[in-house]
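so my prof wants the structure for this chain in the tokens format not the other one, which i didnt know existed until like an hour ago. anyway here's the sequence
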Amino acid sequence: MTTLTIAAAQTISIAGDLQANINRHRRFIEIAAGQGVQLLVFPELSLTGYERSLAATLAILPNDPVLQPLRDFARELGVTTVVGMPIRLSGDSEVLIGALVLATDGSLAVYSKQHLHPGEELAFAPGAGGSMLTLGNTTVALAVCADFSHASHARQAADSGADLYAAGVLISENGYVADTALLQGYAVEHSMTVLMANHGGATGGWESAGRSAIWAPGGELIVAAAGVGDALVIARHDAAGWTGQVVAVTQIDECRDGL
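here's what i got, hopefully its the right format
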């Protein structure tokens, strides 16, 4: 049986500083590659922080050259990477909350958040979702935060053949118990692996709970971060079953040259 290794990148984003956050993402991808991670998922709007007031200014087209070095890095290190970014699908279109898939073959796929939290409509428009991913024998469905609060979203993913439901989120301490109960419930109800990548610190005026987690089909918790902070939350599956590991990530100095 081929080993499947997936990870949630629990990151602390620097508000509105795309280049600094790209450097941080590179650090996570590098460490993930060293751990044999095949799929690495970052939180909602990880490349900018959850900065609604800055979203219109920061929004890019998905294939903007500013992300090409990060795409190349993910390809070179062999880690399919899902990053969060405000996007426009054309130069004058509405701003969407995007999850961009940087694939190991150099291609780019786009998922846009379908369901908005109250207040997000002031900065964003609802998106249209996106196609599922194939990772070896595993079919992956993506979600961004409020998407998973709609049971129909996870049900549709399962009905379409998803083995893994992967969500980039921003969840505060007040919402953590209820939200993780929903996610764990999807693992039980739909026999899917469920991955949740949460922010590791404050962003956009919200205090994130951290505690990114991965549940096995059936709902057993495989692994979770203990709290906030930068961490790589890894789950591996082989013939013996699931194992988990949390790797603390020491961030690089915020140099502009990256790694």
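also thought this was worth mentioning. The radius of gyration is 16 Å.
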